[in-house]
Prior knowledge:
Blueprint: H1 3-24, E1 34-37, E2 40-42, H2 44-60, E3 65-68, E4 80-88, H3 90-94, E5 101-108, E6 111-119, E7 124-129, E8 134-136, E9 139-141, E10 153-156, H4 166-178, E11 182-184, H5 189-197, E12 203-207, H6 211-223, E13 227-229, E14 242-246, H7 251-258
Parallel strand pairs: 3-4, 10-11, 10-12
Antiparallel strand pairs: 1-2, 4-5, 5-6, 6-7, 7-8, 8-9, 12-14, 13-14
Amino acid sequence: MDLKSLCLDVVELSRExxxxxxxxxxxxxRDDIEEKSLNSLVSYVDKKxxxxxxxxxxxxxxxxxxxxxxxxxxxxxxxxxxxxxxxxGTTNFLHGLPIYSVSIALQRNNEIVLxxxxxxxxxxxxxxxxxxxxxLNQKSIHVSQNEHLKDSLxxxxxxxxxxxxxxxxxxxxxxxxxNSRGVRRMGSAAVDLVYTxxxxxxxxxEYSLHAWxxxxxxxxxxxxxxxxxxxxxxxxxxxxxxxxxxxxxxxxEVLEATKRI
Length: 261
């Protein structure tokens, strides 16, 4: 399989879908919003975007199955599965906030081998394929070289439905905020991850995330030279609903904090 060629096809698809999402921003209304669960919003825009993604990816790789947020396809592949979030940052989108993205990853057996995240409003497409490095709009990207938390900008996401660990989370957030250059909450985990990949952020952590939120972005971080783990430093980040991404140099300091959550 030519992963580079396939990745560039997915880049093209992500841009197409992203532009259609941007157009729909002018048309969607509060009446179109559905609440899947507590504070988990969706609209026809998410669903139509996912339908188009599933249709096109099925053409590109017919044997692959899907792990897709809106459940457009429940097909499971024996070797290949696409992990799809058609609109990461739906709440931002529905409130007119300009940070949301299309996120697509390809899993081969138990390994991610391709990832694309398209941030629509800045027209920035981040992408990577196995052992090929990471790119932003055709330019190679790398994680930052900051070695200390005090010199670093950190990203996170606030809990919006799973409040079981919220007290310990905010204690950790306080500690990191007091010992870094600041903490940012963008509202799209995929964007947080690719911003870490290109050095805008030095690290990112969050819990209560799904595979489609993190698969593509985390893989891009890895291909950009960064490190990915769960809060304990292990590898259960894809389906374990917690993730730490860093430039690698900050991993120890960030994990010292997140292990308390």
